[in-house]
Design goal:
By secondary structure, the protein is α+β, with helices and mostly antiparallel strands. It has 2 domains: 204 residues, Chloramphenicol acetyltransferase-like domain (Chloramphenicol Acetyltransferase, 2-Layer Sandwich); 223 residues, Chloramphenicol acetyltransferase-like domain (Chloramphenicol Acetyltransferase), CATH 3.30.559.10. It is 24% helix and 22% strand. The strands form 3 sheets. A 6-stranded mixed β-sheet has the order 1-6-8-9-3-14, covered by helices on one side. Strands 10-16-15-13-11-12 form a 6-stranded mixed β-sheet. A 4-stranded antiparallel β-sheet has the order 2-5-4-7, with no helix packed on it. 44% of the residues are buried. It holds the Pfam family Transferase. Belongs to the plant acyltransferase family. InterPro entries: CAT-like_dom_sf (IPR023213), Plant_Fungal_Acyltransferase (IPR050317).
Length: 465
Amino acid sequence: MNFNTPKSTSLDFSKWTTVSTRLVKSEGKREPEWMELSVLDSPMWDGIHSSYFLLYKSEPGADADDVLPIDRLIGSLGKALEHFYPFAGRLIKPEKDKAVRLFCNNEGAPFTHKHFDGVVSDLMDVEQFKSNEILSGLYDVYPAAEVFDASGVPTLIIQVTDFKCGTRCLSTSWSHNVADGFSGTHFLASWAQIARGEPISLLPVHNRTLLGPRKSSRVLDGGPCRFLNNIIEEPAVLQLAEPEGGIGGRSFKLSRRRMNELKAEALRDSQFGSLSTANCVSAHLWRLITEKRGHAPHEMTRFCTLVNCRPRLKDCPAGYFGNCIALVASPVTVGELLSNSLGHAATIIHKAIKELNEDVIRDYIDWLSVNKFQWSSVGDEPFMLGDPRSNLHSVQASWHNWFPFYELDFGGGRPSLALLNGYRVDESYTGVFFPLPTSTNSSEGGLNIFLFGGKNMLGRLDNEL
């Protein structure tokens, strides 16, 4: 699957009709306020919107409003924004090299209703899905990355697309500066609860000072940061290399049976009596991608895992709204990775994640508060802790398998399919993969995995994914 170029029909604007467009605002009364972003919110996520879509299929002869009612969506969204009011605000960036700020001014979330003159298969092949910004709403509202002007950038963008076959698509895109995947899907789940007439089961907490630096620590005094112990020491200049053949993408399904096989194989050679399925699948892809890249045994590679820090911080509530994730790196030589077993690789990942405790996370926050901006001397790329300076040697996972996409019933039933609509990817996404749940949540269900990387390397993976 190639994520870069949509099918020609998706760019045929004569097939698209805008039914309506509006700004949905919070129904609650609140004075405008500046909400300061935490060090985990900015600047690493500037210009990135997390974009997903959900397909809702109506019964033959039924109206799409039966499965995803527009009026109910709009009305419940206004109520949801009372609680998740940062999603009705704007991101403001006063100058190019200044920090992005969040203005909670209730300007409203853009909500567009469109009609596509065709069936779903005319626009996309769900088995060979291609990223489509026209489908996401980003194309109309946010036409280019890192466009910040006096009016600001919407923090939440919603588009509903109707197809002639009766399917209705709900696309959601939220700013990663404002929310990580846990907070974004927390909002979606709460919105769906309101649409069904139910109370919100988990209210959001907007106190971002909970992730502020400590008043004093050895890190703030210039001492060592334990979080940096697993970062490979490399030259100080950030250089993102163009992958071989340019960057592309592939999607593939991993069955529950294959996942269980990988876990059983890893456990046979691990010193731990228990390894998560995620770590075993990650280890498998890390070894496979590294092998196909063809690096020399003495070169370094590392696996980076995005970890939810909420349950690891005693003063951080489950409903914390914002970014509360850390990128944990597991560095080894290519030779060590490939000459040892799958269990060895899974154990390396497991140990690095296990070491991410409260003290390490607080060190990380303190370090970031002192080192907020470290610009490279080449280009405008910011230094992002844990992000590969040598991007062609790293593999990274952002696990979406626990996000409740298939529980999002807005009053007419659950979606038949949930997919990542891609990001505006560049070289920094080389070797990054996103596992999402499949449409079935039974024990037989597996994963839909989206992998970005060099096109030539991806071609060499074709027969092994």
